[in-house]
Amino acid sequence: MSEPKSLAALDLAALLCSRVCHDVISPVGAIINGLEVLEDEKDEAMKESALELVRKSALQASARLQFARLAFGAAGSAGAQLDLGDAEKVVRGLLDDPRLTISWNLPRLLLPKNRVKLLLNLLLIASSAVPRGGKLTVDPVGEGEAMGFRITAEGSYAKIQPAVEALLTNHSADGIDAHAIQPHYTGLLAGTAGLKLSLESSPEKIVLAAA
Question: Can you say whether the dihedral through the CA atoms of 140, 113, 64, 174 is positive or negative?
């Protein structure tokens, strides 16, 4: 695998900001729509539906922001460590879907923050590989501060897009936009953490590993 190539720092920051905005704009827009209905609607049943929309959308926006804070943000000073228990909490909040089961087999301990950020970003990619639902299994590779991760995504038509696989290796930083920045950033995190990424695919199963 060739050495990762990165964007200019300002471009990387701008694209990550765009990605976060993209993730939260939908639930925030739904909150606004619900509040407009509450202001104008006289029917009590419609007002109750609008209130439920606001509630669900606010929870979704909060879950996405909490995840983004750990996965993309600074989350502490340089050299800081993050708690895998906190990582599990934000993952379950973000991926709260009755069609998706998460089996989290990691111990609760502190790890260098870039390793935890890498884990969160790999889980984001793995979850997108099973859009119809299924199961995500998160296992440790090794132990202690040198721990890596293996994430297995199982479900109907499980698939990682070829473009995403190429971006994970970061052979080129050319042509990366807000849609492509997350897998590119994941590859950068792996390099910073001193881990190598691998991907295996078979019918209805994808395995992403960082070791």
Answer: negative
Residue 188 lies in a domain: yes
Q: Which of 140, 90, 148, 88 is CA-nearest to residue 114? A: 148
Between CA 112 and CA 80 the distance in angstroms is 6
Residue 139 near residue 106, CB atoms below 8 Å: yes
Range of the domain at 99: 9-210
Residue 1 within a domain: no
Provide block-wise average pLDDT over 10 residues at a time, the chain (211 residues).
64 92 95 92 89 96 96 74 96 96 97 96 96 96 94 94 82 74 93 93 94 94
- The count of structural domains within the chain is 1
Distance, CA of 72 to CA of 87 (rounded, Å): 12
Asked whether residue 4 is domain-assigned, the answer is no
Question: Who contacts 168 (Cβ-Cβ below 8 Å, separation ≥6)?
Answer: 125, 183, 184, 186, 187, 190, 197, 199
Q: Cβ(156)–Cβ(134) under 8 Å?
A: yes
User: In this structure, what CATH number is given to the domain that contains residue 206?
Assistant: 3.30.565.10
Q: Are 136 and 88 in contact (CB under 8 A)?
A: no
